[in-house]
Amino acid sequence: MQLSDAISARINELLEERAWTNYKLSGQSAVPNSTVSNLLLCKCKGCNVCTLLNIARGFGITLQELFASDLFAPENLDDDN
């Protein structure tokens, strides 16, 4: 799995847990909806850490909690991108 796929899947997990839309996340995180949408569609191959920090804050969690998923285990990620 590509890192962008793992980020998208994790954000989708958190959205589903909270029954939020990407518009709600955008409002809570102050990340433009277009950026949230691009992350969800895996159109962002390189993601800014500040963006991920704001998304985590929007969810009310830490970066550690955002990445606390088996999706990010080294054996689940491809070496390229």
Give me the secondary-structure topology.
Layout: H1 3-18, H2 22-29, H3 33-40, H4 49-59, H5 63-66
Helix pairs in contact: 2-4
Number of strands: 0
Query: Proportion of β residues?
Result: under 5%
Residue stretches low in confidence (pLDDT < 50, at least 5 long) are none
User: Tell me, what's the shape?
Assistant: globular
Helical/strand content category: mainly alpha
Order of helices and strands: HHHHH
Which key terms come to mind for this protein?
58% helix, 81 residues, 5 helices, mainly alpha, globular
Plain-language structure description:
By secondary structure, the chain is an all-alpha fold. The chain is built from five helices and no strands. Helix 2 (22-29) crosses helix 4 (49-59). The N and C termini lie close together (10 Å). The model has no long low-confidence stretch (mean pLDDT 92).
Brief overview, please?
The protein is mainly α and 81 residues long. 58% of the residues lie in helices and 0% in strands.
